[in-house]
Design a protein that fits this description.
It is built from eight helices and four strands. By secondary structure, it is α+β, with helices and mostly antiparallel strands. It is found in: Membrane.
Length: 310
């Protein structure tokens, strides 16, 4: 005889609550970084027009995409705060992951655009006013250093913050490259240094973008969180929860990088009330694996029934 006990239990939001303050601070930091980036983007574009520097105009276009990415990241936090409703029973937390994924793809596009633009500049070098370029590059470096410092104080584990930080890091590296290129141009007049350094920056951006897209895409595809091994979960529960003889149909995924979920079936001997075993399983999942939301189905069998997977 098999008795089935379905216990979804109350969902503890402890870790989520711990992240609320950090999320609010990260949202404010990203919002301020977006304003800084947008303001300097306008100034850099104006500087490019005044000096006739294609490099500065192109970098202003780069900052336009970064401004859009940071604005999306800020909106991601705003939307993720919305409570769950009947149509979104898990809430809107994953919107931030979707934004991180979108930003990662945008970083790919930016890096590829930089390489293509660098190729064109190598083929047909244009005149660059090194003095104006140097002044704007120094200003851009200061702005991006401040923006990067702002985002460095945000939640380092949050994919949305990491994607936004990568946008600013790309601008920061771009400013350093422009600064170095301006110094070389002023000293030697050798303009190809500008596109060459741009390619180096684009390669760094590509590596970072790949990591963001891979991690956020894994979450969006309901992939198993890196720290959760279904086989290890089964072994741990069988060895630490009295009465559990088999654990199967284990599914693990996450809403965001810090909200893992698990569902599983546990076959238990009928010597203990199913509710006690369910509570013990959930306690082990929380204390050992950091899982606050678990759905456990208990299948009670007599002591004589052999445990079998399924």
């Amino acid at each position: 005889m098999h008795a089935h006990s379905h216990d979804h239990g109350a969902h503890s939001h402890g870790p989520g609550h711990r992240h609320e303050h950090g999320a609010g601070a990260s949202e404010r930091r990203i919002g301020f970084a977006a304003l800084l980036t947008g303001a300097f983007m306008v100034a850099e574009f104006a500087g490019g027009l005044i000096s006739g520097s294609l490099a500065l105009i192109a970098d202003a276009g780069h900052m336009l995409t970064d401004f859009a990415g940071l604005t999306l990241a800020w909106l991601g936090f705003r939307v993720a705060r919305r409570p769950a409703d009947p149509k979104r029973s898990y809430g809107y937390g994953r919107f931030g992951v979707l934004v991180a994924y979108t930003n990662g793809l945008a970083l790919f596009a930016i890096a590829i655009w930089i390489v293509v633009e660098a190729w064109h500049r190598l083929q047909a070098p244009g005149e660059i006013l090194g003095g104006v370029m140097l002044a704007v590059a120094i200003a851009g470096l200061l702005v991006n250093l401040f923006a990067f410092w702002l985002l460095h104080g945000g939640d380092g584990e949050n994919l949305n913050v990491r994607a936004a930080r990568l946008h600013v890091l790309g601008d920061l590296l771009g400013s350093l490259a422009a600064l170095g290129a301006a110094l070389v141009i002023l000293a030697t007049g050798w303009t190809p240094i500008d596109p060459i350094l741009s390619v180096v920056v684009s390669l760094l951006i590509l590596g970072s973008a790949y990591r963001i897209v891979r991690e956020s895409g894994h979450i969006l595809l309901e992939g198993t969180p890196q720290h959760l091994d279904p086989q290890e979960i089964a072994r741990h529960l069988k060895s630490t929860v009295p009465g559990v003889v088999d654990v199967h149909h284990i599914h693990a995924w996450s809403i965001t990088q810090d909200r893992p979920l698990v569902t599983l079936n546990a076959r238990v001997i009928d010597t203990r009330p199913p509710s006690e075993i369910t509570a013990a399983i959930k306690e082990r999942l929380k204390s050992r694996f950091g899982v606050d939301h678990a759905t456990v189905e208990v299948e009670v069998v007599s002591g004589a029934d052999p445990p079998s997977g399924g």
